[in-house]
Design goal:
Blueprint lengths: L18 H17 L3 E2 L5 E3 H7 L5 H6 L1 E5 L2 E5 L4 H10 L9 E10 L11 E10 L4 H17 L5 E7 L3 H15 L8 H9 L10 H7 L2 H7 L6 H16 L4 E3 L11 E9 L7 E7 L3 H4 L7 E7 H7 L8 E6 L3 H13 L4 E3 L6 H11 E6 L2 H6 L1 E6 L5 E5 L3 H4 L1
Length: 411
């Protein structure tokens, strides 16, 4: 016997019995995002490696450790580890800067990162997300947060916490980085290896560290005071204040978290996460923020932008199981040509119908029908001769014989 080939570690099959919950995530996105005026976009699952190095940032763990990169025809290509850079590339390449602002886009699909698989996180995982281009005012930040909350509530998820922070603009953020480095310099040798690397390249990423010993360092009074200082400039502070005012007016409860920086280099000003108390320590279901310089950094015009992404595996883990919906009818018959014709007629009328293709015994067919269908359509010799069908309601066991052309209306 040939050796069985198993699924690759960090990937999973999405089986037929599980697909209903995925359809719910996708259909709810289509419904909710459409009400806000967002249009779906689908980008390739691999792009030029340079797109992610420039877009996501060469100091991030994603670019340094987690990308699936391969060479083809002397060109470096990468399976997308996230989709914002790809959407921005498409926005530029397809001339969407000429469209009236705001340009509102949403997407869903697989992403790829080489990291340790854990609950709700795989090496091939799926995200649903939105991007808005062309509006620099905090009203755009408020709308995408409100959209995320509305989407989660439409899925039936209400036990949520919105955390927000402002990273400021490049000018005030540079001053903050210097202060972070100064106050952490005496603790440098006590930092984890990743934080030692981040210390020079991107000191803000230090605050995103999940290592407990580093978190304890950040809690020291003299260090915490610098972290929690109001470093942002007057213009950035006004933007942040207006955002909070919008959230207050919309009744969205939030908490400010000065350690919230997000893991990607392109963010500026607003960053946010939405967390669920039902996921344990890795409890973020949504993350996003503003990235006003990314379009320009990738060769486009200077265009403000804001967006977010959600891991669909994590969302699925929070949803109750969805039982597969039964089909409308199952044709129970040992007269296959006639069964085919009846099924074809009913399918043309919009009904979901299956027939027995293996010529199983009558009782075996009826047994299967009772498991997967709402009605059993019995087509025997007498029914065929009289152009009738015996229709059995499999929920009530009521059975009637009707003319063949009346079946569609009855079921």
């Amino acid at each position: 016997m040939a050796k069985i080939i198993n699924v690759i570690k960090g990937t999973k099959d999405i089986l037929p019995q599980d697909i209903s919950s995925w359809h719910k995530l996708e259909q709810t996105a289509l419904d909710v995002f459409g009400k806000y005026g967002y249009k779906e976009i689908r980008t390739p699952i691999f792009e030029a490696t340079e797109l992610f190095a420039r877009g996501v940032g060469d100091t991030t763990d994603i670019v340094n450790k987690e990308m699936y990169t391969f060479e083809k025809s002397d060109r470096s290509l990468t399976l997308r580890p996230e989709n914002t850079a790809g959407v921005v590339r498409s926005f530029i390449e397809n001339g969407m800067t000429r469209l009236s602002a705001p340009v509102k886009l949403w997407y869903h699909g697989p992403m790829f990162r080489y990291e340790r698989p854990q609950a709700g996180r795989q090496r091939q995982f799926h995200q649903v997300g939105v991007e808005m281009f062309g509006v620099k005012q905090p009203a755009a930040d408020a709308e995408v947060i409100m959209l995320a909350v509305d989407y989660l509530k439409a899925l039936g998820l209400n036990d949520l916490l919105v955390e927000i922070n402002s990273l400021g603009c490049p000018a005030c953020r540079d001053t903050y980085k210097k202060r972070i480095k100064e106050v952490l310099k005496p603790e440098f040798e006590n930092l984890c290896d990743d934080c030692k690397n981040r210390y020079e390249k991107n000191p803000l990423r230090l605050l995103d560290c999940k290592v407990e010993s580093c978190r304890e360092i950040f809690e020291k009074p003299e260090i915490k005071k610098v972290i929690e200082s109001d470093f942002i400039c007057e213009e950035c502070a006004e933007h942040y204040s207006e955002l909070k005012s919008y959230l207050d007016k919309m009744g969205i409860k939030y908490a400010e978290n000065k350690l919230l920086v997000r893991g990607l280099d392109y963010y500026n000003r607003t960053v946010f996460e939405i967390k669920s108390n039902n996921l344990g320590s890795q409890n973020a279901v949504c993350g996003g923020g503003r990235y006003d310089s990314l379009v320009k950094n990738l060769g486009g015009e200077d265009t403000p932008a804001v967006g977010w992404a959600m891991g669909m595996e994590r969302l699925n883990s929070l949803l109750p199981p969805i039982l597969p919906e039964k089909i409308d009818a199952y044709v129970v018959s040992n007269y296959l040509p006639e069964a085919f014709l009846l099924a074809k007629k009913l399918r043309s009328a919009g009904k979901t119908v299956e027939i027995d293709l293996a010529n199983k015994k009558f009782m075996k067919q009826l047994e299967k029908a009772s498991k997967i269908a709402k009605f059993a359509l019995i087509l025997g010799e007498d029914e065929i001769k009289n152009h009738t069908v015996s229709v059995k309601n499999l929920e009530t066991s009521e059975q009637n014989t009707v003319k063949a052309d009346e079946v569609a209306a009855l079921i």
